[in-house]
Amino acid sequence: MKIAIEGCAHGELEKIYECIEILQERESIKIDLLICCGDFQSVRNNEDLRAMAVPEKYQNICTFHKYYSGEKRAPILTIFIGGNHEASNYLQELPYGGWVAPNIYYMGRAGVINFGNLRIGGLSGIYKGHDYLQGLWEVPPYTPSSLRSVYHIRSLDVFRMSQLKEKIHVMLSHDWPRGITDYGDKEHLLRRKPFFREDIESNQLGSIPAERLLHMLKPEFWFAAHLHCQFAAIVNHDDDSVTKFLALDKCLPKRRHLQILDIPSELDGDKLLKQDVEWLAVLRNTNNLLSVKNMDCHMPGPGCNERYNFTPTAEEKEAVLKLMQDMTVTNNSFVKTAPVYNPRAPKCAPSNPILNPQTATLCEKLGIDDPLQVVMARLGRVMTQPWVDNMPTILESRTNDLAIKEYISNDSPVQTPMKHAKLSLPAPNTPKIHEAEGCFEKNSMFSPGSSFVSDTADSLNESITPLSATKKTFKRRNMSMYTPDGDDSLSTESSSLHDSDSPKSSKQLCKNTILA
Question: Which neighbouring-strand residues pair with 101?
């Protein structure tokens, strides 16, 4: 089995697929799965652009909408986690994961999915300490603050991941685990990114929760993105297990943004995407810990008078299997919940969250709550029902009401019946406002025919061609992209979402590559 791992996609989905197609033809290989490490930008329409935390000049529709509308179909099964530049309103519809387009699957706020016998874990968003302990209180329409806090990792997601005991083969995060630079060629990184030095030396570069999960889960591979540079590391754990870490760049020519990984044949299995039994059991066991309050919420631990170990028992996993019946994640469960892209439509911010049938179905089967429904109920608001492709035709045949026809012609979501989960909730509470915020390369950390070059630091360093030690000028023209009235991305990163050297052709993206 061969899988491709992409760093920050930044909406260049069409280019990434074209690049993989060229690579498959050139190398006479078949890639079975594409994994994206965040900043995927699943933007369906102009409303979604306003739910993405980037300055207006970077609100580019890009190419995902073609796959959402059905104009194109993803040529390869694609899974992704969320980053800090996403259409958050769409991803909030799928807190536990789901199809965002045919053959394109979002892993949710946190989650585990199986591809064949390969077990993949993921943690969406980025870490910010001031929001980490809070409940999931954000909801459209977003304030300038909640537009950013909505993609900040929460302790509940990390706590759930920490309950896993079965082997994780591949783990994904958007930002790097804190301290990971101690396990690779730190000096080589600093020659390329000298502005990282202060954060590295103060041990502030990276995510604290991701660091904890790295040493707790001990996956075979860990992939990340966010900082727009490639960095390789090998982490030797106390029990002699090893995690091979690789951060990747963003999708631009002459950037190390895509890695091909050769997976051992024993993990091939049926090469179908399936739900993970242990993870779904953890979701069931921890549903009572869900909070949508705009206040700190602490997870249970030793010494308390309630359950704090939620690792599923054999009986709990068997109960999940009975409830789900079929663990296969089928493409036919995808539903268009919002209108497709119309270039003439105004860029207006989304005003109301949409109920996604995929989430509603999973919640009903497992008996768990949809965080978005819970927070809406607390606020005394009602979810918008999903858009249905043929609903305009159906309604036009049943009514002559001009107001209804005008509503339909504007591509507005149609109110169609759908069962809501029964919720027992406290009185509505208005969220408070938080002001703080924030391709391939010739040499690789992988060698042909093996997973990694070597388990030694020397050979790892040799696998990356040293760049010039000359200090690069820090381009500050794009600083507003990464530090908009806050600190959501490191101020040390100078590249914009769409630099002037954006891909002109897929051949440019694939010019220098090597397989693992």
Answer: 104
Find the DSSP H helices in 165-231: 186-192, 197-201, 208-217
One DSSP character per residue, 348-406 reads ----S-B--HHHHHHHHHHT---HHHHHHHHTT--PBPPP-TTHHHHHHHH---HHHHH
Is-contact 257 249, C-beta < 8 A? yes
- What is the per-residue pLDDT across 124-174, written as a single tens digit (0 to 9) for each? 999 999 999 999 999 999 999 999 999 999 999 999 999 999 999 999 999
Q: Is the pTM for the entire model greater than 0.85? A: no
In this structure, the dihedral spanned by the alpha carbons of residues 130, 132, 133 and 138, taken in order and rounded to 10 degrees, is 90
User: What pLDDT is recorded for position 507?
Assistant: 61
Using the Cα atoms of residue 507, residue 509, residue 511 and residue 515 in order, give the sign of their dihedral: negative
Query: Would you tell me how many other CB atoms lie within 10 Å of the CB of residue 371?
Result: 24
For residues 80-96, average pLDDT: 98
Three-class secondary structure of residue 26 per DSSP: helix
The pLDDT score that the predictor gives to residue 28 is 96
Reported as a single tens digit per residue, the pLDDT across 248-258 is 999 988 889 99
Domain ranges of the chain: 2-509
Question: What SS3 state is found at 468?
Answer: coil
Neighbours of 237 (CB within 10 A): 12
Give pLDDT tens digits for 301-332: 999 899 999 999 999 999 999 999 999 999 88
Q: Could you tell me the two tokens for 453? A: 């070059």
385-419 burial, b at 16+ Cβ within 10 Å, e below that, comes to bbbbeebbeebeeeeeeeeeeebbeebebbeeeee
* Cis amide bond preceding 417, omega within 30: no
Pick from 335, 334, 338: which is nearest to 46 by CA? Answer: 338
Point out which residues pair with 13 in neighbouring strands.
none
With beta carbons less than 8 A apart as the criterion, state whether 54 and 497 touch: yes
